[in-house]
């Protein structure tokens, strides 16, 4: 594999590494006394291993072609020799190599460090939620996610008492306005900074999957319409939820609307006028007046008037509930709603487009990505960690964490707490497999990872850090076992290991070397100059007379004048002539060059005889080719052929390099085993 590499092309490194991975796979030591197929620089490679690599790049069920097999065997030997050389030169010990391989490993390990069954359940759950839009109200009692048990109990009892009031008959909206810590539930008087706001009584409008934090979404979808949920804990505190509506998912829609605006608490007269106006618009629509004309005449939404009232596409959680209800009754594009009232005034809607929820198979990848960034991913993580604890015989002494409540002080919040303050604590805290972690280890972790919040209690902070540390070590331990547990991961990591080495060494010996070795490149061109020849060419000027601004007669006269010796190649004089020919300097374009066949379709169409060609036509443009002279085949200079010469020089360097590697390292083919493949 050879190619020209420069600084800008370094960005393709990962692509080239993947090419190497697909073309050649790493191999492993001979096992079970299976006869070897190859021995390359002391490494035995089995028939099964070679076939795995070969069939990775060829159709598995087709008969093996002898020629293709022989060619691949030769390429595979070259690959293994290069990797051997990279290791011998110490490239695998370089800090940059280790860092790059570690980065790839982090990405490749991720699918192995989750509970795939739980992730699949979450995908299906999210998709099921997406089939329905929910309208819900809530009451929030704020509580810090790191609150102490005592504060947590106070908040829980408070939300339970609010729930009891509602179940006893008080209106949800009234209790929300009085007691919810969500400020949008309450009425707010006008200030200099904002107008008067009428509280929503806890009404959150419509939403679907991923529109709310997962704990809230899950609680809402588990609550039946009309019922009041038990308290639900989120990072914001405790919620009780009342589901007021549940309907088939709207999907994505685009509408146009006419708005007759009406401020909240408007006078009775203004309210009547607005209703009269919206009824007048509805009557005109029924009589045949176009929706767009009525938008221009009546709508108070100045931002959409110029667009015929059309609003950007939106989902269920991006629009007021009154719109969602009205849209659910519109079936096809062009349908128009009845007049509807909202806190903004009166509206009439016209459906432009409606896109239903796509099938699960089409959304699976998108949903999976959202889950990875969402709170619900914790369920998969927790399940995976619990399985790890069972698999690797996790044991824990839970009492040991309490010792830290006494030795950790508020200084930890000022980044000044030291591990020495817990030097008397040395007991075993937990073990994972063969590894044991002590209080001393945790003290050192605390001393480095003190990024706490001063409002947290010491107990809460220590507990959170202990959980964080424990999870980190469990994942780290599981990651260290991936090669032992998953053969496919082991193979993949070996492939990346070899692929990065192959790239780095080939870049050093071939690609970059060919560019930097200017003396060698020049010498190579000189020795092989006969391979870099121009074919027949013509020295010519292409004149294009634009958009019929110059008559064909005047165009030919113009070119004939240019053909005179005193004007030949004197472009300043040509510019002067163009000015005389036309007031519009853009009326004539010209291009002077040496043309080979295929460089210019118009030059290709004319006879290569000196002088002006026949007039050609390209739509509204006239084209005349002025042939100055025909050029016989000649050698290309290095600058003219540099791209091709550099590529050929790279191929030459690689062949010479491979020749030296085959002399440096021994390799043998077990022909008896090889013939069983053929």
Topology:
Blueprint: H1 13-23, E1 36-40, E2 43-46, H2 47-56, H3 66-88, H4 95-109, H5 116-130, E3 132-142, H6 149-167, H7 172-179, E4 203-207, H8 214-222, E5 232-234, E6 237-248, E7 252-261, H9 268-287, H10 291-298, H11 302-305, H12 321-327, E8 340-342, E9 345-355, H13 360-372, H14 377-391, E10 395-396, H15 404-407, E11 428-432, E12 435-438, H16 439-448, H17 458-480, H18 482-485, H19 487-516, H20 518-527, E13 537-545, H21 552-562, H22 571-581, E14 588-596, H23 601-605, E15 611-612, E16 616-618, E17 621-631, H24 642-664, E18 667-669, H25 671-677
Antiparallel strand pairs: 1-2, 1-18, 3-4, 3-6, 5-6, 7-9, 8-9, 10-11, 11-12, 13-14, 13-17, 15-17, 16-17
Helix pairs in contact: 1-19, 3-19, 4-19, 5-13, 5-14, 19-24
Features:
Chitinase A, domain 3, 5-stranded antiparallel β-sheet, 5 domains, Triger factor/SurA peptide-binding fold, 678 residues, alpha+beta
Can you identify the CATH class of the largest domain?
Answer: Mainly Alpha
User: How many DSSP E strands?
Assistant: 18
Low-confidence segments, given as residue ranges, are: 1-11
Question: How many angstroms does the end-to-end distance come to?
Answer: 26 Å
Shape call: flat
What do the pLDDT scores average to?
89
CATH-level-2 architecture of the largest domain: Orthogonal Bundle
Radius of gyration: 38 Å
Q: What is the structural class?
A: alpha+beta
Q: Bin the helical content.
A: 40-55%
Determine the strand fraction and express it as a percent band: 15-25%
How would you sum up the major sheet? Answer: 5 strands, antiparallel
Oligomer class: single chain
**SS summary, helix count:** 25
From the 3D structure, determine the CATH topology of the largest domain. Triger factor/SurA peptide-binding fold
How many domain modules? 5
